[in-house]
Amino acid sequence: MFDIIIVGAGTAGMSAAIYARRSGKSVLMLEKTSYGGQIISTPEVVNYPGIKNISGFDFATGLYEQALALDADLSYTHVIGIQKGCPEDPEGFTVLTSTEELSCRAVILATGAKNRPLGLQGEQDLIGSGISYCATCDGGFYRKKVVAVNGGGNTALEDAMYLSNLCNHVYLIHRRDTFRGEAALSEALAAKENVTFILNSEITALIPTYGSDIPGTNIRRTTLSSIFIRNRVTGEETALNVDGLFIAIGQMPDNTAFSSLVNIDEKGYIIAGENCLTNVPGIFAAGDCRTKEVRQLTTAAADGAVSATAACAYIDRNGR
Amino acid sequence: MAVITVTAENFEEEVLNSKVPVLVDFWASWCGYCRMLAPLVEQVSEEVTDAKFCKLDTDNDPDLADKYDVNSLPTLLVFKNGELVDRSIGFVQKDQIAALVK
Ligand SMILES: Cc1cc2nc3c(=O)[nH]c(=O)nc-3n(C[C@H](O)[C@H](O)[C@H](O)COP(=O)(O)OP(=O)(O)OC[C@H]3O[C@@H](n4cnc5c(N)ncnc54)[C@H](O)[C@@H]3O)c2cc1C
Predict the structure, then answer these.
(1) Assigned fold of A117-247
(2) N or C: which end of chain B has fewer CB atoms below 10 A?
């Protein structure tokens, strides 16, 4: 039985592990993908206080090594639920993973957020084959090609600008008639010859090509070939040929596995304030997964400290 | 076996002409998940002895990435008898890497 199980080994989860281990509690982090969370694919972090410039990978690896040096445990598995009570202690918790049931005295949920998908048929299968959520990561592979960017915030505008310097043409598709992102950026884009705005429009279908031959091989591969766009004002639907689609419509949490126990808001974030307390004593929420104003590394790390301290106090208070 | 660095120069010899299945890790230095995956490929290459493990820096050889339609990193390609037979896109755990060359 562990004192604390932390769900998610991103910045919040690993920071919590460091604080909890330093308080002498046994800690197990459960992570479904790789340690580090969202920041891994960011080449440069320049706003973490005390560190002028660091790659997301180096930042996350530093946290990981620090947590492991303090003897925190990490196991790669998907957490699919939590139940009140465990065989060793009716006041403890059972954490359910895809393969086992684990017991602990307190739980810290640090599940973060992920890129919001369009939710269209075939989207998951086309990731890396025409669909991308990271222009700075994958843009280089679309040099001299035709791409579309979907979204209206700063990320979408920045992605469109970045891609316009590499690609033959960039279509920027947004569901409203104005952008939420900085005006200076949208004006700079409007002035670019190889950028076309498609406003008041949403993507309704992704059309793959089946079996495009890869030269020199006998492999056939499904890639994105075009998208369908519906104008929200006129209702008109048109097809647009693109080699790539970069989706930049924000982040979203995934806390459905815990929603039977823990209160969640209408957007899916765990309801918890700066003290990281949820409606269930003994379950804490840290980082991007909880309701908050600013979702950044510093606030995730801060939540790690706050939630771990609260979890340790909870365990000590209950004399276990 | 260690992971062999391949480029346009030795791709044919190391990968296409190989008698055993070859896994090629398409990576780049700026790609965080590639740096995460590399040590796992290294570990699998020590454990699986009946396959060859290579890595290709897509910044040095964009043409090869283009040829095999690699447009997201990391991508693992598997070749058997000179033919591309499987592909895995994104970060994966060790057991999934090993399963690719089984
Ligand atoms: C492209 C991009 C660039 C950014 N740049 C910056 C920046 O420059 N500076 C900055 O301060 N912030 C930046 N951010 C924001 C920052 O990355 C987040 O605020 C931070 O990662 C939040 O950390 P977290 O630990 O709460 O969540 P995450 O980083 O999302 O980590 C959550 C972890 O939990 C795991 N998980 C989720 N559900 C489960 C489950 N059921 N079972 C097991 N594991 C699970 C996930 O796999 C993930 O590893 C950026 C974000 C993005 C997307």
Answers:
(1) FAD/NAD(P)-binding domain (3.50.50)
(2) C
